[in-house]
């Protein structure tokens, strides 16, 4: 009997330690390092510099900095924390654990307040169980961290609402510009009643399986859930327009080329249409809202012309036989303009993940050689900011800051294993920010 008591006591102690290690508000000292890029000389600020966990930025379609511009939000697994959301103070380098329950899908930082919204849980894939959306008060959390008076997690978070199991939610979601509604993708039988004008699409490419999906909204004050639309294909990334409330952008995800990648719809289900109608030879991907009226898209040219035949995987798409590069689509006029390409002398072949500044001055992209490029939209000049990065465990995924002066990426440049990613902020050089133009772009 004595050994049973000792065993139970050990289990209790282990549970207490595990809970403590997963605690919201747990801190790590600064890991901040400024490393000049080995080719361009641009000072790269690494806010994390550890190989004892997996750090990755929030996807390029979503907000990276808190509303006050002081903290960078990222995903990671540090030491024994499990997969959580963290924040790094850009000035001090201090790192704080923001979640305690883990997360699935896309963490969403609020646009106007110091709130973070997550679907708790872990892993990938859709759930056959109900899901909750949590709101976390980061302003209160950071204040208590500074004061050394961190309370239990429930003092900083509340349940906004519960998504029923029948909707098969995986946490891929986007927050409305007013911070009052969340839009999230769903699957399952409730998506089979397709919205007007939609049809069940055939299987496409080597990865896409036939099926339906949909969008739902949650009122973050009341928890009420409403239907937005159902479509006849597999929906991918969901994002919002941070400048226009109730405007949503989403994609048809195949794991490669889609027949029609980009889509837009309003929160009431109206205006459902392709964002950029693409041709069979175009490989469109990695769309991101960059301004009140603009979405940037990648038009890939990464495949050999001779191998992209009608009977090959993905067909004839994604070669430089047709125009490729960074495209910017106007949501109102529907006009698209190509603003930049990988230079012909560079080894990166094609743009891959794209971004843009809200002031209309800059576009940015990474390429297939893990380099970061800046495009001056006034004159079309393409400038390398960060040279060939080590091929880490994921792509570098550039995103501009709200003040349009810097770009966040994830990079393996300082990792000894050439794989582990760290959170990195790349400044736009002051000489470029100081440029003046006789004529200015109006976004």
Summarize the structure.
This protein is 8% helix and 36% strand. The protein is mostly beta strands and 443 residues long.
What does the secondary structure layout of this molecule look like, with pairings?
Layout: H1 2-21, E1 27-28, E2 33-36, E3 43-46, E4 53-57, E5 71-78, E6 83-89, E7 95-97, E8 104-109, E9 115-119, E10 131-137, H2 138-147, E11 157-163, E12 173-175, E13 181-186, E14 213-219, E15 225-231, E16 235-240, E17 247-252, E18 262-266, E19 273-274, E20 284-291, E21 294-299, E22 325-330, E23 336-340, E24 351-356, E25 362-367, E26 372-376, E27 382-386, E28 399-400, E29 406-411, E30 422-427, H3 430-433
Antiparallel strand pairs: 1-7, 2-3, 3-30, 4-5, 5-6, 6-7, 8-9, 9-10, 10-11, 12-13, 13-14, 14-15, 16-17, 17-18, 18-19, 20-21, 21-22, 22-23, 24-25, 25-26, 26-27, 28-29, 29-30
Find the count of extended strands (DSSP E, 2+ residues): 30
In the CATH scheme, what's the topology name? Methylamine Dehydrogenase, Chain H
| Name of the CATH architecture | 7 Propeller
Number of helices: 3
Regions with little confidence, pLDDT below 50 for 5+ residues = 1-21
Query: How many domains is the backbone divided into?
Result: 1
Textual characterization of the structure:
The protein is mostly beta strands and 443 residues long. The chain has a single domain (25-430), classed as Methylamine Dehydrogenase, Chain H (7 Propeller), CATH 2.130.10.10. Helices cover 8% and strands 36% of the residues. It has helices at 2-21, 138-147, 430-433, and strands at 27-28, 33-36, 43-46, 53-57, 71-78, 83-89, 95-97, 104-109, 115-119, 131-137, 157-163, 173-175, 181-186, 213-219, 225-231, 235-240, 247-252, 262-266, 273-274, 284-291, 294-299, 325-330, 336-340, 351-356, 362-367, 372-376, 382-386, 399-400, 406-411, 422-427. The chain has a five-stranded antiparallel beta sheet, with no helix packed on it. A five-stranded antiparallel beta sheet has the order 2-3-30-29-28, with no helix packed on it. Strands 8-9-10-11 form a four-stranded antiparallel beta sheet. Mean pLDDT is 91; it is low at 1-21.
